[in-house]
């Protein structure tokens, strides 16, 4: 676990040392020996915000300090922290601090501050997280997909589900799976899908995708505890994982029909693994 934590801390140090430079998520993730997909998932669970939100907040923090403590021009500070114009910088600054850059130079101006993050592991009361590791053959899914940005996906993916559910009986698939696939930088595809069998017709507007054979860590949860379970997977279970490594760049949410006599959807999170 120490090596994993050290690698993640290296990535945070790299961000801090390069806030005035262009930051590439692939380079940041490599500092932690993780893929961009898994790095962003783990960062969100550990830090409570996206990588992009953290970088913007740190840049706004430093920009405010420079505005209030120096005579440097606003345009120079804006360019230093990646903004092309004073207007775009001023809008971002006001969203974060609640005041304009010029107001930040007034005596007694109230400014927000986000300290640099550091990974610290503390042992507290243990929390139970049930899971099992199973081996599954290759399978194929059929469904609809949409491209999302990781910075806004927590807000936008639920809207995707709402739009799909609003179709009612016209829905071409049941929605057994929710999958994050094909990460490219901050962009990834999210699928709402079912199992596909070759003798079936592909519904209009749907596509198919093969999911390779793999070992899977399967975590049971409920719709209400899905987000909490997801956070525990990345912040508690993964750092202490021994004998296995993450593989590929996706994970899967599984939604199955309720057990007889129950109205609660059976929900799981699947994470692909390989033996270390």
Q: How would you describe this structure in keywords?
A:
276 residues; alpha+beta; Arc Repressor Mutant, subunit A; Multidrug-efflux Transporter 1 Regulator Bmrr, Chain A; 2 domains; nine-stranded antiparallel sheet; 8 helices; 36% helix
Explain this structure.
This protein has 8 helices and 9 strands. By secondary structure, the chain is of the alpha+beta class. It has 2 domains: 2-105, Homeodomain-like (Arc Repressor Mutant, subunit A); 132-275, Regulatory factor, effector binding domain (Multidrug-efflux Transporter 1 Regulator Bmrr, Chain A), CATH 3.20.80.10. Strands 1, 2, 3, 4, 5, 6, 7, 8 and 9 form a 9-stranded antiparallel beta sheet that branches. A hairpin with a 2-residue loop joins β3 (177-184) and β4 (187-195). The longest helix is centred in the first third of the chain and has 19 residues, at 51-69. The radius of gyration is 22 Å and the shape is elongated.
């Amino acid at each position: 676990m120490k090596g994993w934590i050290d690698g993640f801390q290296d990535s945070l140090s790299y961000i801090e040392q390069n806030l005035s430079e262009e930051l590439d998520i692939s380079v940041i993730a490599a500092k932690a020996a993780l893929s961009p997909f898994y790095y962003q998932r783990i960062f969100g669970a550990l830090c409570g915000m996206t990588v992009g939100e953290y970088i913007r907040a740190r840049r706004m923090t430093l920009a405010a300090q420079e505005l209030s403590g120096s005579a440097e021009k606003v345009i120079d500070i804006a360019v230093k922290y990646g903004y092309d114009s004073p207007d775009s910088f001023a809008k971002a600054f006001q969203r974060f601090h609640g005041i304009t850059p010029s107001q930040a130079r007034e005596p007694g101006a109230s400014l927000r501050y986000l300290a640099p993050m550091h990974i610290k592991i503390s042992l507290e009361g243990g929390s139970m997280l049930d899971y099992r590791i199973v081996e599954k053959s290759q399978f194929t899914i059929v469904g609809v997909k949409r491209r999302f940005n990781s910075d806004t996906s927590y807000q936008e993916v639920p809207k995707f589900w709402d739009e799909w559910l609003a179709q009612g009986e016209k829905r071409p698939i049941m929605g057994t799976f929710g999958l994050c696939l094909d990460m490219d930088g901050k962009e990834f595809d999210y699928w709402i899908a079912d199992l596909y069998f070759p003798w079936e017709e592909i519904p209009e507007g749907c596509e198919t995708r093969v999911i390779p054979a793999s070992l899977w860590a399967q975590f049971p949860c409920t719709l209400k505890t899905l987000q909490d379970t997801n956070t525990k997977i990345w912040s508690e279970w993964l750092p202490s994982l021994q004998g296995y490594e993450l593989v590929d760049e996706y994970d899967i949410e599984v939604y199955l029909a309720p057990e007889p006599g129950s109205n609660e959807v059976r929900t799981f999170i699947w994470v692909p693994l390989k033996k270390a």
